[in-house]
Automatic annotation (TrEMBL), chain B:
Full protein name: ABC transporter ATP-binding protein
Keywords from the named record: ATP-binding, Molybdenum, Nucleotide-binding, Transport
GO molecular function: ATP binding
Mop domain residues: 288-349
A Pfam short name: TOBE
SMART domains given in the database record: AAA
Residue ranges annotated for the ABC transporter domain, each copy included: 3-235
PROSITE patterns assigned: ABC_TRANSPORTER_1, ABC_TRANSPORTER_2, MOP
SUPFAM superfamilies documented for this protein: MOP-like, P-loop containing nucleoside triphosphate hydrolases
Length: 282, 350
């Protein structure tokens, strides 16, 4: 690759798309299913918006149970996102850069929670950390009871969210390649310094999008949570559980809370998208 | 010797022996895939030798016996800096921070690192661009910063892997001169396929081909009296091998090449005859007259070479004017006669 070509590419990513450019590789018929698909995603959100009882919206989303659920949801989602970062960054590094037997198998296993029905994930966690579980019994001896606690919520969310972070970060690491790391090491930087000062800044956009995906997945977690942690107000009843519960008794409250979840998701994605674009490293 | 490498990497078909004395620059010349980058990778610590030893300042960087590692120094502890074809500047750091990276990583305080970065910025005349991001630099500027970044790390050995290959033709001469100045005291290995890089920057040349060093010596000597076909082709020279007869150099093809001067060798000695493409004339019919060497040849390709056109044939290369190409109707496949005056041919023992 020649230097002028590199510069050119840098220039096109910095500037807006050139209006003179003719799009290629886009058959015209693709617009129709694409528009249908777009409507399929957006229309239900708009429909939900039309069903909101705006006059009582404030009261609906500030009821004691709603507030408790929102606070719990944000707390647990943040905690599980942090847990995903602590475990997921090294996992992605090992999968992308390590060389060991069984690497391919491990890479597939990491993806399991992604394809597993969350309820099954909850059952699996219960058989591990539950009172009669694989680790649960010995943990109980130590006085630790995880199932049906807030910790269980965090574990359930982390279990389903971890693959999102690992997959995006591993992809970013592979795309970035090892060439910058080699140069940094040749300048005298230890592997940890290289990771901190070169590798992670280089894959920052991938790390950020992986973190956002993990956070969003954790925030929306339902199946594994209700199976493994139950639905105790203020302890394990997160916002999605509250929505599901309210739907039976107070549909207006359910719609209002759903909209709240949508709003939180939109705010998180908008904030990180802007920062990600601005702070992107070439 | 400051740096010594004698190693094999069977998976890459490499078996080389190299050494560089303190403050000297060794050029590894060779075609793509010859093993130049593999040799650099061994020095930098991105590749392990299967067999052999690599030492720098008497310290063993890597050693292995038949695939079993007996010594290994991690790349970041080697004090061997690497500069590649692409500048590979860290895009999230400013120019100044890029140069200060090495000193900082090696434990210098923020102030020390900044002072060193400042000195190197001045050495490459880019003090004004200190706070710019690499993405805003031109290719030549970026490569200058990369050089300063490598040197600021105070390496005991600097590895340059085709440092000029990615630059515009216009930027290359200035950067080459700057490198010549900056590398004066620096122990360096330069991998390149450009003969000019070797001429300007290197004290010594090792010609690498097929994973082996096929020729080795002071730059001027290797380039003016090449013994291998590759050294000759990169030096832009035609090379004919044969044995010495009373008449001249007899080639395997049965021709006798006449050169100027009579080397003091016994009959039957292996000899090389060398001439520049510009000394080769192209004719459509067999030329007559003065003492000439003539060869029947088939044109293989025509490529621009400065203001001239380099005509490659199955025998020798010739540089002719575009006018002659048109006049003679030269095209690949065309049968021609090549003629070289004996006075233009150097002969010497291999």
């Amino acid at each position: 690759m020649s230097a002028p070509a590199t510069r050119e590419r840098a220039a096109t990513t910095r500037t807006r798309r050139d209006p003179a450019e003719v799009p290629a590789g886009l058959p015209r018929w693709a617009y129709l299913p694409a528009v249908v698909g777009g409507l399929f995603v957006v229309l239900p959100l708009i429909a939900m918006g039309t069903r909101v009882d705006w006059s009582n919206y404030g009261a609906l989303v500030t009821s004691e149970s709603a507030r408790a659920a929102l606070v719990l949801s944000l707390q647990t989602a943040v905690a599980s996102t942090l847990l995903c970062l602590v475990l997921g960054i090294p996992m992605a590094l090992v999968l992308a850069r390590g060389r060991f037997p069984g690497q391919g198998l491990l890479r597939s296993l990491v993806l399991v929670p992604l394809v597993l029905p969350p309820v099954v994930g909850g059952v699996a966690l219960l058989s591990t950390f539950g009172r009669r579980g694989l680790l649960g019994e010995s943990m109980e001896v130590l006085g630790l009871q995880i199932a049906f606690s807030t910790t269980a919520v965090v574990l359930a969310q982390s279990f389903v969210a971890l693959p999102f972070l690992v997959v995006s970060l591993e992809g970013a690491l592979r795309t970035a390649g090892e060439r910058y790391d080699v140069v940094a090491a040749s300048l005298g930087a230890s592997p940890t310094t290289v990771l901190r000062r070169v590798t992670l800044p280089l894959v920052w956009p991938g790390l950020l999008s992986g973190t956002v995906l993990a956070f969003a997945r954790a925030l929306g977690e339902f199946g594994a949570t209700i199976t493994f942690a139950g639905s105790l107000q203020g302890v394990t009843r997160t916002l999605p559980l509250e929505v599901y519960l309210q739907r039976e008794t107070d549909p207006d409250a359910a719609v209002a809370l759903s909209l709240l979840l949508v709003a939180v998701a939109v705010v998180v994605i908008a904030a990180t998208h802007r920062r990600g674009a601005g702070g992107a490293v070439r | 010797m400051t740096f010594e490498l004698a190693a094999t990497v069977p998976s890459r078909g490499l078996d080389v022996r190299l050494d560089v004395a303190e403050g000297r620059t060794l050029a590894l010349l060779g075609p793509n895939g010859a093993g130049k980058s593999t040799a650099l990778g061994l020095a930098a610590g991105t590749l392990r030798p299967h067999d052999g030893e690599i030492t720098l300042d008497g310290r063993t960087l890597a050693a292995a016996q038949d695939g079993r590692r007996t010594a290994w120094v991690a790349p970041h502890r080697r004090r061997v800096a690497l500069l590649a074809q692409d500048p590979m500047l860290f895009g999230h750091l400013t120019v100044r921070e890029n140069i200060a990276f090495g000193p900082r990583a090696q434990g210098a305080t923020r102030r020390e690192a900044a002072a060193r970065a400042h000195r190197w910025l001045a050495a490459i005349d880019l003090t004004d661009l200190a706070d710019r991001r690499p993405a805003t630099l031109s290719g030549g500027q970026a490569q200058r910063v990369a050089i300063a970044r490598a040197l600021a790390a105070a390496p005991r050995l600097l590895l340059l892997d085709e440092p000029m290959a990615a630059l515009d033709v216009d930027t290359t001469p200035a950067l080459r001169q700057r490198l010549q100045h900056l590398l004066a005291e620096q122990t360096t290995i330069l991998a390149t396929h450009d003969v000019l890089d070797a001429l300007v920057l290197a004290d010594e040349v090792a010609v690498v081909d097929g994973g082996r060093v096929v020729e080795r010596g002071p730059t001027a000597e290797v380039l003016s009296r090449p013994r291998s076909a590759f050294a000759a082709s990169i030096a832009g020279l035609n090379l004919l091998s044969g044995t010495w007869t009373s008449d001249g150099v007899a080639t395997a093809g049965g021709e006798v090449v006449h050169g100027h001067g009579a080397p003091d060798v016994v009959l039957g000695t292996a000899m090389t005859a060398v001439c520049r493409p510009a000394a080769v004339a192209v004719h459509l019919t067999a030329p007559h007259g003065s003492p000439r060497n003539t060869f029947r040849a088939t044109v293989r390709s025509l490529t621009p070479h400065g203001d001239l056109v380099r005509v490659r044939t199955d025998r020798l290369a010739a540089d002719v004017t575009p006018g002659s190409v048109a006049e003679l109707g030269l095209a690949p496949g065309r049968e021609v006669w090549l003629a070289v005056k004996a006075a233009e041919v150097d002969v010497y023992p291999v």
